Amino acid sequence: MAQITFDNLAHSYLPAPKADADWALKPMSLTWRDGGAYALLGSSGCGKTTLLNIISGLLHPSRGRVLFGDRNVTDLSTAERNIAQVFQFPVVYDTMSVRENLAFPLKNRGMPADQIAARVDAVARMIGMTDTLDRRARGLTADAKQKISLGRGMVRQDVNAILFDEPLTVIDPQMKWELRTQLKALHREFGHTMIYVTHDQTEALTFADEVVVMSEGRVVQAGTPQSLFDAPAHTFVGYFIGSPGMNLLDAEIQGTTARIAGTTIPLAAPYAPPKGRVQIGIRPDAVRPASEGLPFRLIRTEDVGHHRILRGEVAGAPFNLVVPEDQPIPAAFDRVALDPARIGVFVDDWRIEPLERAA
Ligand SMILES: Nc1ncnc2c1ncn2[C@@H]1O[C@H](COP(=O)(O)OP(=O)(O)OP(=O)(O)O)[C@@H](O)[C@H]1O
Hints:
By secondary structure, the chain is of the alpha+beta class. The chain has two domains: about 5-240, P-loop containing nucleotide triphosphate hydrolases (Rossmann fold); about 245-359, no CATH class. About 25% of the residues lie in helices and about 35% in strands. The chain contains ten helices and 22 strands. A six-stranded mixed beta sheet has the order 6-7-8-3-9-10, with helices on both faces. Strand 17 (about 295-305) and strand 18 form a beta hairpin. Helix 3 (about 100-110) crosses helix 4 (about 115-125), helix 3 runs parallel beside helix 5 (about 140-155) and helix 4 packs across helix 5. The radius of gyration is 24 Å and the shape is globular. The chain binds adenosine-5'-triphosphate.
């Protein structure tokens, strides 16, 4: 196993990239800790698969280097990198039995038969296929075939990393939860570096110790699920993580106040006069109905069990509140109060620190 480092890595699928948009991955330097459980999260087309394929060696980066430990592996093949990769759709040998499919990566490496048998049994238990080990893969459902692919990805214990590219897309919802739990257990047991690509935040937040969020070919933030929730570094992270996401409003900042569409609200700390597009961001659970504060227009209320979501608008922008079930909601209210301690200030989409903390 090894720490994986991106050293000034960038990739374009075009032969002569010019504009920013020509780069599927913009220049990045990043370290993936040995033994870390990572989720790579971002919307469709942001570059997740490109990044994964550069780690595994399926794709050669246009610029920069990939290091495993101190070793430069940029020009090495996938096999030489010793990486297991599980794709979105099943990759199985139809004419082989489930057992033979699972044993294949081990046989290839010349593992003794008794060790192969023991390992295949263990993996079959993990993916819930003990009873189907001797069936041919042909004729199994897509769901079962994908479980075989997952099993094959996890069967070798000597790999540098296991990469999962949206592996649960074809799996039914109940099994999804079970398999995710198994992956987590496997990570705890063997400590492999795992990188799990998804565009589903629930999947990312339940699997990973660290979430790497991508947007438009850039890593905009990497951190624990809690840090992404509490202090998003970029408006995309604020909006993408959380359900509903962070509320964002255009604002003018003056010292310890923010002025939003003619109303002034307090901030918890002073800010230097920012230049650029300024927004404040606040999580829906840090806002409450009030008689003073920002003018709010309620559009609808959704009851989602342990809390309610009040969807509405502030100054023409979508704005949501999350209210715990046991907290009464006034029959009529047209203002909302924001908890100053939980307001973030963003300039041109990036979070800025207040003067006191920056000093
Ligand atoms: N083989 C290719 N040739 C040209 N452009 C490509 C190729 N593969 C991907 N791209 C482009 O590179 C960008 C990043 O794509 P990538 O597949 O890495 O994103 P992704 O985040 O994995 O998306 P998804 O979640 O839809 O799989 C996209 O603009 C995509 O159109």
